[in-house]
What we know:
By secondary structure, the protein is of the alpha/beta class.
Amino acid sequence: xxxxxxxxxxxxxxxxxxxxxxxxxxxxxxxxxxxxxxxxxxxxxxxxxxxxxxxxxxxxxxxxxxxxxxxxxxxxxxxxxxxxxxxxxxxxxxxxxxxxxxxxxxxxxxxxxxxxxxxxxxxxxxxxxxxxxxxxxxxxxxxxxxxxxxxxxxxxxxxxxxxxxxxxxxxxxxxxxxxxxxxxxxxxxxxxxxxxxxxxxxxxxxxxxxxxxxxxxxxxxxxxxxxxxxxxxxxxxxxxxxxxxxxxxxxxx
Length: 253
Ligand code: ADP
Ligand code: MG
C-alpha cells in the first residue's frame, strides 16, 4: 500500500537556520496523524513543505507516491512546472490557525471559489456542492453570511468546507482551534472527527490532546526540527519514552 505521505530525511533551512533536521515519517491512507511539539519545533514548516508553500533543501517528500515538486528521471531530479505543481496542490487541503476567508464573499461563495476558479466548474454545480458541505459542517443556515457575521468557530468550519470543496485526498490542519475561544473549539473538533470517520487522511498539528487520544491513529512528538517519538496516541500520551516528550506533556496536559 502506498503511503499517503512519506518523508525521508527531509531537511529545511531558512538561511543559516536549519528548521527541519532530517524528518522521516509515513502517513498511511485514511490515517489521522497528529503532530505535537513546542512552538518553533518545525511543525508548520513541515506541513508547508507538503503543501508546496516551502521547498525542502534535502531528502525526499512524497504524497501518494509522487515526489512533491519534482520529477525523478534516473538519478536526476527535475523541478515540476507551475501547472504540475498546481495539479499536486489541488489534491491537498489545508486549514490554518487563522481562517483566511475572503471577507467580501459569503460563506457559500468562499466554498465555491476554488472549484469555479481552479477547476473551471460551473457555478451551479459548485454552489450545490458548497451548500452540501456547509450542511456537513453544521452551517446550512449561514450560507449567505459574510465572515464578519460569523463566529471564529463558524469561520473555521467554513474554511474546512472550503478545503473539502476541492475534494482533496489529504487534509492538513495547522492548529485549527488555537485561535478560537474555548467554547467554540468543540464544534470544530466535531467536524474534524466526522471527517476522520469518513476516511479522510489527515495530518493534524494540535495542542488538543483529547482529540489526539480519541481520534488519532498515530502521534508524533517533534522537537527542534526532529521527530523525537512516534507511536499510538494513547501510548505516547500515557507512557512517553523520552525525557523531552515527558517534559512537553507535563506542560500541556
Ligand atoms: P512550529 O509550527 O512548530 O511552531 P515553525 O515551523 O513555524 O514551528 O517554525 C520553526 C522555526 O522556523 C522557527 O524558529 C521559526 O522562526 C523559523 N521559521 C519559520 N518560517 C520561517 C521563514 N519564512 N523565515 C525564517 N525563519 C522561519
Ligand atoms: Mg506552527
